[in-house]
């Protein structure tokens, strides 16, 4: 596209927005509202997934060794486990540490002293293995159970299944809400562009008669839709940025006793993803809505 054509399309697109001021404002308002709701929903989902991911890393499997195994064999098992992609970290717990923790948790001092230097948990040394993704627990457990020197692997399938089900549910709900919001916004853009076409119906007919291409006719309306989409995306981002800061500060200060164990995502992490997503959605809605509407109109004109 030549510069002259580009600036013509830009100029006409802005004119269309001014001509259809009320419909343009309605479209901008709808996109703003949709992306604002999307942003709020994104805050909740992103933080929930972050908390679930953090919780997943605290869910692990415990690996026990055969009796009489050497330290070299234990180290080799540890290295093989660490080499797995699904493993986040591995902690070695010696038999002495296991017995010490057991005494502190379950035995009173008098009863503990009766054991003297004896360690009834002499063969209880273990690895605590934490995963990057709890859904990969089964494959990891199968791998560890096949290693030489491993006596037993303790794990919880119910916890892994709960996290996996929750993540799937969040994904489905997110997809459904996003599709509904996009459909509403595209409908409003289409209505706005349709009004612009109706106003310029005679002008478009004349342009077609003198040989203007469909691309030349379509460009101003696409520019109009994209501008509306960009404005509709920028406005909620600005509002959401301040809201996120205020809400997270309020929650962490007011309900510190409840949320002290949870960590929220930092604003820069949230908005490093939300800004390009929102702009992409806004521009995409504007482009798709206007392109489809003009294309449908031009086809109708050709068939007449």
UniProtKB/TrEMBL annotation:
All copies of domain FtsX extracellular, residue ranges: 59-153
Domain of life where this protein originates: Bacteria
Ranges where the ABC3 transporter permease C-terminal domain occurs: 176-298
Membrane topology: Multi-pass membrane protein
Compartments, record wording: Cell membrane
Keyword Cell division in annotation: yes
TM annotation in the entry: 21-45, 172-199, 220-244, 274-294
InterPro entries, sorted: ABC3_permease_C (IPR003838), FtsX (IPR004513), FtsX_ECD (IPR040690), FtsX_firmicutes-type (IPR058204)
UniProt entry tagged with the keyword Membrane: yes
Listed GO CC annotations: plasma membrane
Single GO biological process annotation from the record: cell division
UniProt entry keywords in alphabetical sequence: Cell cycle, Cell division, Cell membrane, Membrane, Transmembrane, Transmembrane helix
Family: Belongs to the ABC-4 integral membrane protein family. FtsX subfamily.
Biological role: Part of the ABC transporter FtsEX involved in asymmetric cellular division facilitating the initiation of sporulation.
Name of the featured protein: Cell division protein FtsX
Classification lineage: Bacteria, Bacillati, Bacillota, Clostridia, Lachnospirales
